[in-house]
Write a structure and sequence with these properties.
The chain contains 19 helices and twelve strands. α15 packs parallel to α19. The structure holds protoporphyrin IX containing FE (HEM).
């Protein structure tokens, strides 16, 4: 089978044809391949679990500073034009050591397992409320009614966004970051203009919160970011603070949403797995990992070689790009038994859904808590959950998942 590079990287292909599992399986069996898709930057496709671990463990050779997505020719053009503040903002995912570690430390205390325990009530209440919102029985799009609402509530709370601003924040991030999907894109004279306008609105919204927390500190992430200093005591600049807000919200929202839809989707195909969870709640620990392995919402991250290097039998030149396909690593047959089986009891489960090493997901404990709370609600309350039409996929190759997931359900009231 010859692999069409566009299947790996073109957002519309993901929207139309879904995730390229067969292509990745082929690539995992082949020597490392250099992909030159028409209309995109070229890249080495890194599809094997062991190769992704090796690349991620060597940030000096494979850096993030040159960007994390494989750009298409349109993005390359706007990148060259881009002067807006939102484009100049570097967030931690685009930093390399030593700066990366200094900036990551600013918020890492908040995201530890103990830090996240403080959010237990918020997370559980949110999960219960979104399931309550479905009513006892009916039909709904589970992306809109469940999966997207739960992380929105949790993240808005920790970032200090009032409930009446949540919907607007959601629209803004979708328009800024799901820009490849024509259904979600904002109407504007140009993409550049849209980014400027959206960026300004973001700034205004977050800035008001930052100012409020500087004047009236509370025990939340918003206050931690608004009053943060680096290890040398230097306060974070305004753009850096706003950048942190943006990365926490954007990195946390769509990813968790897609993991939750991945779980709902998988349970509709495998109701016996939901029944297993209902009967044995100790499986929550492994179920949450399997949901992240299975759904792999972050499809890939880009790295750029900082020097000529031999890797995986290939000669990689300085400046060449590598795309680390986590979703492929999560189905690597040399690591996982029966990788295409959704098994909520899978243990061990060394998935790479949260990445590896230097940039390992900062919000992984919060994501786990949010997913666990929803799975617990589903296990407690779902009597019937079945498809009520075809699901559709977001036209995105970067953060991937369902755009719509129509379902019919019967739900028990909360205990
Ligand atoms: C199921 C949900 C999630 C998934 C699958 C996910 C996945 C990832 C992945 C793959 C990376 C890059 C790792 C690498 O390059 O090695 C990452 C980084 C990151 N994630 Fe998550 N994430 C999720 C939820 C969250 C949440 C809830 C937050 C915050 C509230 C968050 C914040 C971040 C941040 C700030 C980074 C950058 C870390 C760094 O550069 O050091 N993520 N995530």
């Amino acid at each position: 089978m010859t692999v069409d590079a566009l299947d790996l990287i073109a957002s519309d292909r993901y929207g139309d044809r879904g995730i390229p599992y067969a292509q990745w399986a082929e690539l995992r069996r082949s020597p490392l391949q250099y992909m030159e898709p028409e209309g995109y930057e070229s890249f080495w496709a890194i599809t094997r679990h062991a190769d992704i671990i090796a690349v991620s463990s060597d940030p000096a050779t494979f850096c993030n500073g040159e960007g994390i997505v494989v750009l298409n020719s349109h993005q390359l053009r706007t990148e060259a034009e881009g002067t807006s503040a939102i484009r100049q903002m570097k967030t931690i995912i685009e930093m390399d050591p030593p700066d990366h570690r200094r900036f990551r430390k600013v918020a890492s205390g908040f995201f530890t397992p103990r830090g996240i325990e403080r959010l237990d009530t918020i997370v559980r209440t949110s999960a219960q409320q979104v399931v309550d919102g479905l009513g006892p029985e009916g039909e709904a799009d589970l992306v809109a009614q469940v999966a997207q609402r739960h992380p929105l509530r949790v993240l808005s709370t920790i970032l200090g966004i009032e409930p009446d601003q949540e919907e607007r924040l959601l629209e803004l991030t979708q328009q800024l970051f799901a820009a490849d999907d024509p259904d979600l894109r904002r109407e504007a004279d140009s993409r550049q203009q849209a980014i400027e306008e959206l960026g300004m609105e973001f700034f205004t919204m977050f800035n008001a919160i930052i100012e409020d927390r500087r004047a009236h500190p509370r025990d939340d992430l918003a206050t931690m970011l608004a009053t943060a200093t680096l290890d040398d005591g230097e306060p974070l600049g305004m753009l850096e603070t706003l950048g942190y807000y943006l990365i926490v919200f954007t990195a946390g929202h769509d990813t968790t949403r897609h993991a939750l839809t991945g779980a709902l989707d998988a349970f509709m195909d495998h109701p016996e797995e939901l029944a297993r969870l209902r009967d044995d709640r100790t499986l929550l620990r492994t179920a949450v990992e399997e949901v992240v392995r299975w759904s792999a919402p972050v499809n890939y991250m880009k790295r750029t070689a900082t020097r000529d290097v031999e890797f995986g039998g290939a000669q990689i030149k300085a400046g060449e790009r590598l795309a680390l396909f986590y979703a492929s690593a999560n189905r690597d047959e040399t690591v996982f038994d029966d990788p295409d089986r959704f098994d909520i009891g899978r243990d061990p489960n060394r998935h790479l859904g949260f990445g590896w090493a230097e940039h390992y997901c900062l919000g992984s404990h919060l994501a786990r808590a949010s997913i666990t709370a929803l799975l617990d609600q589903l296990a407690d309350r779902v009597e019937v959950l079945e498809r009520a039409g075809d699901a559709s996929q977001v036209a995105s190759a970067f953060v991937v998942g369902r755009k719509t997931l129509p379902a019919r359900y019967v739900i028990r009231p909360a205990a």
